[in-house]
Amino acid sequence: MKYDVIVIGSGPGGYISAIRAAQLGSKVAIIEKYPTLGGTCLNVGCIPSKALLDSSHHYYDAVHHFEEHGISVEKPSFDFGKMVDRKAKVVETTTGGIKYLMDKNSIDVFEGVGSFEDATHVKVTKNDGSSEVIEGTNIIIATGSKPSTLPFISIDKERVITSTEALKLKEVPKHLLVIGGGVIGLELGSVYKRLGADVTVIEYAPTITPTMDKDVSKELTKVLKKQGIKFNVSHGVTSVERNGDEVIVKATNKKGEEVTFTGDYCLVSVGRRPYTDGLALEKAGVKVTERGMVEVNDHLQTNVSNIYAIGDVVRGAMLAHKAEEEGVVVAEYLAGQKPHIDYNLIPGIVYTWPEVAAVGKTEQELKDAGVDYKAGKFSMRALGRSRASGDIDGFVKVLADKNTDEVLGVHMVGARVADLIMEAAVAMEYRASAEDLARICHGHPTYSEAVKEAAKAAWDGKPLNA
Length: 466
Hints:
- By secondary structure, the protein is an alpha/beta fold.
- The protein has 3 domains: 2-147 and 273-343, FAD/NAD(P)-binding domain; 160-270, FAD/NAD(P)-binding domain (3-Layer(bba) Sandwich), CATH 3.50.50.60; 354-460, Enolase-like, domain 1 (2-Layer Sandwich).
- It contains 14 helices and 22 strands.
- The strands form 5 sheets. Strands 1, 2, 3, 4, 5, 6 and 17 form a 7-stranded mixed sheet that branches.
- α3 (46-64) runs antiparallel to α4 (80-104) and α3 (46-64) runs parallel beside α6.
- 47% of the residues are buried.
């Protein structure tokens, strides 16, 4: 079997790349080692975590907020099994949708492990041990990533777990220890805190979400503490041991003292690593970095001219939407088009409640680069829409060039900012100024008014409602 394009991996980057290549006239095959398509994101990542976040959020609101809205519910309770079943149905529907798209676009799907025989031939090894070889003029590596761990931690997938196991627990933990205060740890910690677990986050860096703007980290820490999550920053974990149904985590704090934490589950969320296991990249001559990432140029082309790589296996943020954009870029480049991707404008999002979203440069990055900038900030508490819904935590911060007024970064904490951030991304794609954003008529009452007000604060220092 010979194809114009072979895609190895069916996550967001892989399946989107396959669809776009097929739309542009290529004969396409996609290889996936699991029975369902969609990769980590759809099966054990983005989609199932959001399903549990939404279910737990509904329950939390019923317990803590319905009364203030005049809604009486007799002692709300939840069925965790049903929550997990609903999550599974959401995943099943979503992955089934990917299979439909493959059929619709006449993309051949091969189930099995893909490995290079040489630069143009890929062997597909099936679960029953049989194999077949297919040939591709161009090949796209889209095999994603796997959860990382620390060298001294043994993941037993029962009590010491990764995000994959955390999404299919049979019970709500009594005390969940979370190693890592990044996106995954905070989102899954939020799920179980809302359902009644004690949650303790242990983070090596001085702040949670350490790559985000410092004001964002500070605000998120404040609101999650208010919800009952405990934080221990500047703590370096030194050991994780399981004793029956108990997990003991030892760490060293910034004073050099040893601290011990005890829980019934420990979620290890210290990042993810590129997954290229079993690809036999050496047979194709593809180079990887010391960290296991596939080396690519600005066109996402490896050192072997007909082989490309996208998503979590290459440099940059490990985000599903980044992988999707890269998949489109490669497909269009192969079709002779001239696509582009601006890595500075890929939004980062944390789906806690309130949500967190950011695009562009942080204030610290601008300071480090010596950029002369100005900042405007507006509190969600000052919005009529926020007061009406009761979602008063958070803010919007707009960073703009002090001389040109061009928007350089936007950082948000608040209700629905995961969607709201795209207003900023669109504006920045067209190099809008803070004045541009401030002069656009925003609907009232909406959460989006905070963007207008923060932009006005950055532009002339005079927001209207603060």
